[in-house]
Amino acid sequence: MSKTTVNRAQAEALRRNEAKWTKPLIDAGWNAIPSIIIEKQEALGLDAIDMNIIVHLSNYWWHADNLPCPSVATIAKAIGVKPRTVQKRIKALHELGLLTRTERRETRRGSDTNLYGFEGLITAALPYAQEKLAAREKRRQAEDERLKRKRPNLTVVRNNDE
Question: Which pLDDT does position 151 carry in this prediction?
Answer without folding.
Answer: 67
